Hints:
Largest sheet: 8 strands, parallel, barrel
CATH superfamily of the largest domain: Queuine tRNA-ribosyltransferase-like
EC number: 2.4.2.29
Enzyme class: transferase
Number of strands: 16
Keywords: Glycosyltransferase, Metal-binding, Queuosine biosynthesis, Transferase, tRNA processing, Zinc
Oligomer: single chain
Family: Belongs to the queuine tRNA-ribosyltransferase family.
Organism: Roseburia amylophila
CATH topology of the largest domain: TIM Barrel
Mean pLDDT: 95
Amino acid sequence: MYELLKQDGRAKRGIFHTVHGDIQTPVFMNVGTVAAIKGAVSTEDLEQIKTQVELSNTYHLHVRPGDKLIKELGGLHKFMVWDKPILTDSGGFQVFSLAGLRKIKEEGVYFHSHIDGAKIFMGPEESMQIQSNLASTIAMAFDECAPALADRGYVEASVARTTRWLARCKAEMTRLNGLEDTINKNQMLFGINQGAIYPDIRVDHAKRISELDLDGYAVGGLAVGETHEEMYDILDQTVPYLPLEKPTYLMGVGTPANILEAVDRGVDFFDCVYPTRNGRHGHLYTNQGKINLFNKKYEKDMRPIEEGCQCPTCRRYSRAYVRHLLKAKEMLGMRLCVLHNLYFYNTMMEEIRDAIDAGSYKSYKEEKLYGMNQINREKEAQI
Length: 383
């Protein structure tokens, strides 16, 4: 159940009550595709860096080690030793990303596994069954993520099918939650709004799926080829037609700036691989902007990644040392960078919540964006 505590403009501050604990929103979910955060980050680490929600991938866990095995072992929470909320995405994005390996039909999608080429079929019912076996806190509906720049006719047909699939997802989840051997009988379902960059299709779809009275609603199919301005425009037009009293989740987004702008447009939930992926490549987020530790200027820099940062990395290690680890291809270097970046994101979300509580979100957003642009301004001044 979602409790809306305050609004500051369109920015929302809430608490999402779940069987695995409360989620303070807005929230950034830390992406652990195969039940682990890439970069050797443990469950204990997640607790240290203020993680509220871990996100895992239905398709990947179905392929390996297998959702039935995870159910046999007590569910995903027990498997990865994490007692806070977990969201599982539905496998729908893999329909998009594995375009060369799939065929989409009314009943569902026929895949070839990216691991061993084995044939896989996944439809709404199968996705719900897999997610029920995983026993996540929040399950995502099975949808097709149409390319952002797809032609209108394709998008209309795709969205209509996604709507039909959503009704099937809801019915199947209701059935599964009532079974005796289901691990999490309180599993929640979020529907997904699609429509590429056609505002009228988006709005119509938002109205239709809102009628299903789901636990939450996501905006999918963005950050996949359109410009940031197009994404913000779609959010401006679509989010007002999603239920205010339910959480709104912008899938796969994004940069700190994207998050700040989307919160201003009424979004509560976020996830993205940027902080972990960038961290593994030595690209680190700071309040002055992003730095690349591979730059030679950090070779003798004994300062932390960011002065005043309380993450496990900054409390102990220097830029020079972490840079050395990265150059030497030591796993510890990647791990320390990922920990810093996730801590930065999770801390930014805390600041966002505090700013909305204080009724000062607009000024906070402007100051944060200005600060994070400092390095870019300095670079331009040197050219």
